[in-house]
Write a structure and sequence with these properties.
mainly alpha
């Protein structure tokens, strides 16, 4: 995942920063959420809403203004 974020930073789609930390911040909550759903499938709807909020917050923090590569 680090390589993906490095490429997104290089392309100007994501703000400059530590690609390794970005990857951890993005992926870890997803893995934890999958684990919760495996153990407690009745929480899936709530967990999916939380993941949606997580991804939106992550993108608001790191995506460049237009989210596309800046040339």
């Amino acid at each position: 995942h680090e390589k993906l974020f490095s490429e997104l930073i290089r392309a100007g789609a994501m703000k400059k920063g530590d690609a390794h930390s970005m990857a951890l911040q993005y992926v870890c909550p997803i893995l934890i959420s999958l684990s919760v759903c495996d153990r407690q499938p009745e929480l899936e709807e709530r967990v999916m809403a939380e993941l949606d909020a997580h991804i939106r917050q992550f993108m608001a923090s790191y995506q460049t203004r237009n989210g596309s590569p800046q040339m």
